[in-house]
Amino acid sequence: MSINEGVAQVFLQESIRAFQSMKELGDKAFAQTDASHFYEALDPESNSLEVLIKHMHGNKLSRWTDFLTSDGEKESRDRDGEFEGENLSREELLSLWEEGWHVLLSTLHALTAEDVLAKVTIRGESHTVLQAIQRQVSHYGYHVGQIVLLCKHWASGEWQTLSIARGQSKQYKPAQ
């Protein structure tokens, strides 16, 4: 294996790890949120959990289905509809959440080091696979952050931190 192939393989593995970490944050946040809060937004210009899940689901199916061979913005996608509330049940929403992540992670697991510099198209614009993956790391990280913020807001004082709790950082600092 050449150095370039090794770097490409590490990139793919790290991308999978980053996406899995994002999914885990969302999973843990949803577990702390009552179903009634999935439909509430902080204000009229903000998205609810339902809308964020629908949008991420639509984006993942569009971007990652036939990833190497078709434009990442599929004709069948109704992006505008993703931002409309439907009052889907918590179970339906979590099913969409799981389906989207499954499509993404299955696609990434199927990629090879040789694919990393291949060209793919998103909305008619050419990207390397590396660029397309990084684009989605940024996009999904942004929305998972919104999800965690909303879940934390709705849980309020009952929230169990997903990282190091306030005032506990010294416990995680290596001894010198």
- Estimate the mean pLDDT confidence: 95
Q: Assign the CATH class.
A: Mainly Alpha
Report how far the terminal alpha carbons are from each other. 38 Å
What structural class results from the helix and strand content? mainly alpha
Q: Which overall shape is indicated by the principal axes computed on the Cα atoms? A: flat
The CATH topology label is: Four Helix Bundle (Hemerythrin (Met), subunit A)
**What is the N-to-C order of secondary-structure elements (H for helix, E for strand)?**
HHHHEEH
InterPro entries: DinB/YfiT-like, DUF1572
Pfam family, one: DUF1572
Protein name: DUF1572 family protein
Secondary-structure topology with pairs:
Blueprint: H1 3-31, H2 49-64, H3 79-82, H4 90-110, E1 119-122, E2 125-128, H5 129-155
Antiparallel strand pairs: 1-2
